[in-house]
């Protein structure tokens, strides 16, 4: 149940308690709430009056003079009889206004959606379980066609049946869906780069791909598109922006929002590296929302360490805010970890559940890095090789959620649904409200 729904039910409970328990006969004229009454969960109503700017004293649960004055002020502004009494009509106005505020304050909770992977289930069960918290998904289904990057191909093992089931579920539950377009997992790292170069540097291919994306959104009923093309050459930095210009010109008049994912960075040195190939300011100009992928501080090919230490995440957000408005920024949240074999220099991609299974098998002490605000542990496997495991849990996620409110960001994007610590979900309604 969402925070908004909880508030609504609590207010109705309060009103029903007074009107029908204190006044049980439906034939008797209802006496409105007046000064001095105490009603079950009245503090919810008072909190809403606070949120709406009509009351500035702490909720008490009593219908005190401060509450009466706040109600009277609201009634005057909304052309109701200004008697300061809480009638059903007055309560309805408060509820409607509070609902509008809740809608405005609700942060984006975008979940990247992936099908079954080795040891990791499809994201579908998580979407179902968290349908009242997840606001949108971006299915990892489409990529640049390896034979013609002006076309799209289905880049995962997901079936057409699961695609249809997922999109139908989202429509039925008010969850927006953004088709994700990427250029990875072709078997060799340079393939995606070369495909992106062929697409972005060729005006004919760009136009062709823009039209294909538009047609995909129309055909499948997506709400918009998420461009997750991360691996590009430095020489394609401006070509990529031109692609976004043309995509924006095609999609925005049709009402399709564009989300763009960019790697995390703390400075901008054109030609300097993976993240430097993306001009944050220009990307932000043409995207409706920008996901700053604040993860992979340490990755499968690096030394062991935090996936996203809180200080590093904050630095990347601080830099992004110098280039992109806060209301457009979505902070990437990792739900995964890595298990590095320090002897063989290999690594294993881990969900929270797999990290816990590994800890259960080898019985290490799970430790907390106070500086990075993340959990980790070390162990030796059956062959004697030392391993270092860093992962994410509810505690490390909470530290990052604080930054979303502190900097007034649009929301979060979780990579990926189904890998996370399940205990993060009860945190989100409280953290992800406009401060």
Q: How many strands, what sense, and barrel or not for the largest sheet?
A: 8 strands, parallel, barrel
The CATH homologous superfamily name of the largest domain equals Glycosidases
Broad CATH class of the largest domain: Alpha Beta
Write down the domain tally: 2
| CATH-scheme architecture of the largest domain | Alpha-Beta Barrel
How do the helices and strands line up, and which of them pair or pack?
Elements: H1 3-22, H2 42-51, H3 65-77, H4 88-105, E1 108-113, H5 124-129, E2 136-139, E3 142-144, E4 152-154, H6 160-172, E5 176-182, H7 189-200, H8 203-220, E6 224-228, H9 237-251, E7 258-263, H10 280-286, E8 289-293, H11 310-320, E9 329-334, E10 336-341, E11 346-351, H12 352-362, E12 367-369, E13 374-380, E14 386-390, H13 394-406, E15 411-415, H14 428-431
Parallel strand pairs: 1-2, 1-15, 2-5, 3-5, 5-6, 6-7, 7-8, 8-9, 9-15
Antiparallel strand pairs: 3-4, 10-11, 10-14, 12-13, 13-14
Helix pairs in contact: 1-4, 2-4, 8-9
Structure description:
- The protein contains 14 helices and 15 strands.
- It has 435 residues and is of the alpha/beta class.
- The protein has two domains: 3-103, Orthogonal Bundle (Muramoyl-pentapeptide Carboxypeptidase, domain 1); 106-431, Alpha-Beta Barrel (TIM Barrel).
- Helix 1 runs antiparallel to helix 4.
- The radius of gyration is 25 Å and the shape is globular.
């Amino acid at each position: 149940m969402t925070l908004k729904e909880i508030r609504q039910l609590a207010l109705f409970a309060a009103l029903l308690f007074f009107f029908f328990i204190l006044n049980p006969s439906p034939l008797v004229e209802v006496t409105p709430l007046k000064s001095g009454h105490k009603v079950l969960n009245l503090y919810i109503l008072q909190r809403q009056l606070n949120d709406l700017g009509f009351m500035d004293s702490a909720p008490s649960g009593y219908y005190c003079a401060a509450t009466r004055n706040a109600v009277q002020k609201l009634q005057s502004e909304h052309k109701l009889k200004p008697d300061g009494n809480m009638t059903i009509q007055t309560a309805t106005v408060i509820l409607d206004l509070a609902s509008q505020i809740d809608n405005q304050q609700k942060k984006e909770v975008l979940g990247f959606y992936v099908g079954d992977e080795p040891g990791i289930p499809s994201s579908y069960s998580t979407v179902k379980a968290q349908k009242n918290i997840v606001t949108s998904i971006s299915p990892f289904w489409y990529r640049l066609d390896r034979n013609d990057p002006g076309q799209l191909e289905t880049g995962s093992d997901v079936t057409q049946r699961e695609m249809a089931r997922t999109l139908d579920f989202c429509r039925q539950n008010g969850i927006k869906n953004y088709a994700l377009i990427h250029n990875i997992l072709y078997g060799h790292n340079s393939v995606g780069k070369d495909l992106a170069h062929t697409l972005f540097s060729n005006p004919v291919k760009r136009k062709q791909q823009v039209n294909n994306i538009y047609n995909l959104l129309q055909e499948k009923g997506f709400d918009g598109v998420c461009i997750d093309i991360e691996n590009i050459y430095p020489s394609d930095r401006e070509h990529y922006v031109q692609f976004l210009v043309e995509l924006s010109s095609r999609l925005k008049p049709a009402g399709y929002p564009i989300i763009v994912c960019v790697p995390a960075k703390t400075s901008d040195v054109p030609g300097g590296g993976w993240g430097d190939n993306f001009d944050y300011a220009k990307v932000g100009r043409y995207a409706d929302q920008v996901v700053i992928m604040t993860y992979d501080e340490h990755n499968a090919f690096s030394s062991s360490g935090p996936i996203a230490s809180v200080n590093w995440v904050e630095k990347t957000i601080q830099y992004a805010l110098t280039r992109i408005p806060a209301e457009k920024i979505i902070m990437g949240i990792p739900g995964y970890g890595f298990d590095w074999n320090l002897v063989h220099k290999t690594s294993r991609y881990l969900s929270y559940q797999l990290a816990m299974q590994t800890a259960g098998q080898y019985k290490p002490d799970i430790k907390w890095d106070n500086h990075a605000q993340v959990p980790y542990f070390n162990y030796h496997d059956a062959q004697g090789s030392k391993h270092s495991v860093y992962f994410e849990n509810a505690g490390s996620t909470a530290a990052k959620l604080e930054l979303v409110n502190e900097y007034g960001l649009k929301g979060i994007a979780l990579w990926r649904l189904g890998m996370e610590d399940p205990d993060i979900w009860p945190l989100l309604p409280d953290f992800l409200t406009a401060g």
